[in-house]
């Protein structure tokens, strides 16, 4: 079982992620609160969603593949390839487990959530012709950028339409979002308003037209942040020291050969 990180550790990780990626701290904090109740060890019972931001496996592999190297996870990015059908794969099973286990690390999860949000903001702006607000971006995390664009367009055109009818697979895995307690399907507008309330925003209707304020994004280039390297804490610092003493490898920037040992040490410590 994963151990819940101290609230101060989670707060610090999200603060660093906001600085490094330029994504609003409040958005990242509220998203983690909604997704996992700020528990880095959270695991969804109905899908592969895991960690502070409940990344499913494909979304995580994709964002690590794209942004991992800029944040000290080049060893992981190098192990990921994208097939012709768009799926991300890792050929080495141990490396794959190590990469997916990063979802439970608050620093890795938060900084990748920031990068994911920034990418989604760019995609939604182009698809919708307006600046996305925090609720719009949460839908991109929840449904993917393509699914969010589809949802938001449909909600703008017909907010009374059934959300479950448009997204049956997602509704099956998230009944509390797509259905009332009575079992009746929520409308697109009702699902949007529910998400806005969960995030603690006032955007209970689709976002304002292009030109009006959306989510604050101030992109930070690698090296511009105060410290762009992965951080250690009370749990991970002993692992870094032990790994260096035993193998000579740098756990913060491991190579594929060290990934298996790093993963085994982390899991052993968390389970101990």
TrEMBL record:
Annotated Gene3D superfamilies: 1.10.530.10
InterPro entries membership: Lysozyme-like_dom_sf
Name the UniProt record assigns to this protein: Lytic transglycosylase domain-containing protein
Organism of derivation: Sphingomonas cavernae
């Amino acid at each position: 079982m994963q151990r819940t990180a101290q609230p101060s550790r989670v707060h610090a990780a999200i603060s660093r992620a906001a600085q490094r990626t330029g994504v609003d701290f409040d958005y990242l904090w509220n998203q983690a609160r909604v997704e996992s109740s700020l528990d880095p060890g959270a695991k969804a019972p109905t899908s592969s969603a895991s960690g502070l931001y409940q990344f499913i496996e494909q979304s995580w592999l994709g964002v690590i593949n794209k942004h991992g190297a800029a944040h000290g996870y080049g060893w992981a990015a190098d192990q990921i390839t994208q097939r012709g059908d768009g799926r991300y794969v890792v050929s080495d099973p141990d490396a794959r487990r190590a990469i997916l286990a990063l979802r439970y690390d608050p620093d890795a999860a938060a900084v990748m959530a920031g990068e994911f949000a920034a990418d989604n903001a760019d995609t939604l702006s182009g698809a919708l012709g307006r600046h996305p607000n925090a609720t719009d971006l949460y839908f991109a995390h929840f449904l993917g950028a393509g699914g969010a664009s589809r949802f938001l367009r449909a909600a703008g055109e017909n907010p009374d339409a059934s959300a479950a009818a448009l997204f049956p697979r997602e509704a099956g895995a998230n009944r509390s979002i797509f259905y009332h307690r009575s079992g009746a399907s929520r409308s697109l507008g009702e699902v949007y308003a529910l998400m806005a309330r969960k995030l603690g925003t006032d955007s209970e209707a689709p976002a304002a037209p292009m030109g009006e304020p959306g989510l604050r994004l101030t992109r930070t280039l690698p090296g511009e942040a105060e410290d762009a390297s992965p951080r250690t804490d009370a749990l991970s610092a002993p692992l870094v020291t032990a790994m260096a003493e035993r193998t000579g490898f740098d756990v913060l920037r491991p190579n594929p050969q060290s990934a298996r040992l790093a993963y085994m040490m982390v899991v052993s410590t968390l389970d101990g």
